[in-house]
């Protein structure tokens, strides 16, 4: 597989969610959990980045995962309700997946091999590991849980500039520049 667009994923409603609708724009793909020490910071980072850059085509895709100490026990609808109510998340919450092991989702297998973790490992170590994907559907960066929005922006802004239509003159500012 050469891009995320070749994979089948489902939305929280268990119906197919077409990843190709995001062609030409960067994405941040997270494995999320509602009962994790990283929940507050992870959702706040995802929501802040999404709200700041959604008008430029950027999207966050959240995949609930219950593989880490059963910290995401709810259904997809419960996860969606939690994220939308508690963190004002407006980005897509997708179907619950496994990110490691024999039942891992093929999308995560691709992402993990495209961007390995510390010391070349492929396993996802915890909730809120994220992958930055460029407009061509290729994973370009892997972020560990707890990564701040400003760190993700350093890699995101060049991708947004590359995906901006010619002549539109998209004004992109990092969190630090806008303070």
Automatic annotation (TrEMBL):
Signal sequence extent: none
Taxonomic superkingdom: Eukaryota
GO molecular function, one term: peroxidase activity
Record keywords, A-Z: Oxidoreductase, Peroxidase
InterPro entries tied to this protein: Glutathione_peroxidase, GPX_AS, GPX_CS, Thioredoxin-like_sf
Active site annotation, chain numbering: 36
UniProt record, GO biological process: response to oxidative stress
Family: Belongs to the glutathione peroxidase family.
Protein name as it appears in the record: Glutathione peroxidase
């Amino acid at each position: 597989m050469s891009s995320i667009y070749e994979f089948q994923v489902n939305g929280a409603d268990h119906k197919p969610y077409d990843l190709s609708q995001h062609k030409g724009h960067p994405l941040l793909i997270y494995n999320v959990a509602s009962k994790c020490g990283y929940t507050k910071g992870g959702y706040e980072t995802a929501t802040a980045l999404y709200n700041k850059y959604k008008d430029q085509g950027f999207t966050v895709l959240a995949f609930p995962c219950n593989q880490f100490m059963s910290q995401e026990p709810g259904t997809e609808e419960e996860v969606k309700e939690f994220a939308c109510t508690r963190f004002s998340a407006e980005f897509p919450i997708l179907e619950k997946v496994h990110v490691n092991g024999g039942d891992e989702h093929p999308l995560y297998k691709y992402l993990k091999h495209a961007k390995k973790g510390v010391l070349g490992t492929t396993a996802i170590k915890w909730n809120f590991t994220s992958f930055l994907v460029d407009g061509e559907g290729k994973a370009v960066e892997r972020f560990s849980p707890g990564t701040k929005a400003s760190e993700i922006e350093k890699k995101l802004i060049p991708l947004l500039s590359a995906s901006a239509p010619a002549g539109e003159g998209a004004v992109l500012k990092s969190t630090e520049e806008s303070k």
